[in-house]
Write a structure and sequence with these properties.
By secondary structure, this protein is an alpha/beta fold. The chain has helices spanning about 1-50, 195-200, 220-230, 270-280, 300-305, 315-375; strands at about 60, 65, 85-90, 95, 110, 120, 135, 160, 180-185, 205-210, 215, 235, 240-245.
Length: about 375
């Protein structure tokens, strides 16, 4: 039995050892396989991130921003990450933007298009950007804006159109901008600004209008009145300096008294009818002295529109009232002084006369008393 035990025991131990090493090798194989899978998944993630950023752009996953500035781009790059919140496209060579140019970034909050060569914006260029809050279009070549260009931007808070060639802004740029707080149109070619456009921005608090070709005539009076109310409510604006006419050139709009502005004349309703009568009478014989209606000539006074009588100037009316009041006051003071002088003179004269009467009556009374005393008892 002892011999048999000595023969069997090493064999079993050898079998046990082989099974142990097999198990150890299997565990090592599993560990290596798991490590390779982890490396492969990391590589796939890196490849996915690298493939989601355009070639000439820098993507920052932590802030969800994409920086494509100063790359000489002529069009919006494709393959932008859909989760982008900030897109920087300033200092490029963008000449035009097609409709739905930013459909791949529907969550965009900030869009910077400063210092490009944009001269025209398609009506649907911003479609799909319902979350956009800040739009920078400064230093481009825009001449005008479509009336419904920003209709698809209900959450827009800041719009900067400075340093362009805009000469006209429509009375409305879509639905009322209830969230817009900053509106800048500095350094453009604007001559007038419709008050209805400003009234469509009930929440605006900063309005920048400096360095335009403002024409300070009757049409700009409504802007002046709106700005005065805007500043009274706490709004902030820069100076609006008149470029024409020569009377107000270089003057600030808010410093010109609104009384000096004459209201814009309404077109006369009978102007058209009078012109029609003139055209109709051209085919009829004209009676009158032949020298005043010679062939091929008409009296120029018949064609000229008679200027309407100018309404009374409020400043002149106030000055007239003030001068009249001063004159009346002076006259009243003079009359009062004359009355006081007359009363004083009468009092002094009466006192003087009373004194003289008293002196003349005194000896007579004394003489009568002496005579009375010297009479016999």
């Amino acid at each position: 039995m002892v011999i048999i035990h000595r023969i069997i025991t090493p064999t079993k131990m050898h079998i046990y050892m082989e099974e142990y090493f097999k198990l150890a090798r299997f565990k090592m194989f599993l560990l290596v396989l798991v490590g390779e899978l982890l490396l492969l998944s990391g590589a796939l993630v890196l490849l996915r991130l690298a493939g989601g950023c355009p070639e000439k752009c820098r993507c920052h996953s932590s802030s969800h921003s994409v920086d494509c500035s100063r790359q000489g781009l002529a069009q919006v790059p494709s393959g932008l990450p859909p989760q982008t919140l900030m897109l920087h496209l300033q200092d490029n060579q963008l000449h035009q933007l097609p409709a739905f140019a930013f459909r791949s970034v529907p969550q965009l909050r900030i869009l910077n298009l400063r210092n490009n060569s944009l001269s025209h914006l398609a009506p649907g260029v911003f479609h799909g950007l319902r979350h956009l809050e800040v739009l920078n279009l400064t230093q481009n070549s825009l001449h005008s804006l479509e009336s419904r260009l920003f209709h698809s931007l209900p959450r827009l808070r800041e719009l900067d159109l400075s340093s362009n060639n805009i000469s006209h802004l429509p009375a409305s740029l879509g639905r009322p901008w209830e969230n817009l707080t900053v509106f800048a149109v500095q350094q453009n070619q604007l001559r007038q600004l419709d008050r209805a456009l400003l009234e469509s921005m009930p929440s605006v608090r900063l309005l920048l209008l400096k360095d335009n070709l403002w024409q300070c005539n009757c049409h700009l009076l409504s802007l002046k009145l709106w700005l005065e109310k805007f500043i009274y409510k706490g709004g902030v604006t820069d100076s609006v300096v008149c470029a024409s006419p020569d009377t107000w050139k270089g003057e600030e709009l808010l410093k010109i008294p609104h009384e000096l502005y004459q209201p814009c004349p309404f077109p006369s309703p009978d102007v058209g009818s009078s012109r029609g009568q003139q055209l109709g009478s051209a085919h009829q014989p004209v009676s009158g002295p032949p020298e005043s209606h010679s062939a091929g000539q008409r009296d120029p006074s018949e064609c000229e529109l008679k200027p309407k009588p100018r309404p009374a100037n409020l400043r002149h009316a106030v000055a007239t009232v003030v001068i009249t009041g001063v004159v009346c006051g002076i006259v009243c003071l003079m009359m009062l002084a004359a009355a006081v002088y007359g009363c004083t003179y009468a009092a002094v004269t009466a006192q003087y006369q009373g004194g003289r009467l008293a002196q003349t009556n005194a000896p007579v009374k004394m003489e009568g008393k002496e005579l009375y005393d010297s009479s016999p008892a």
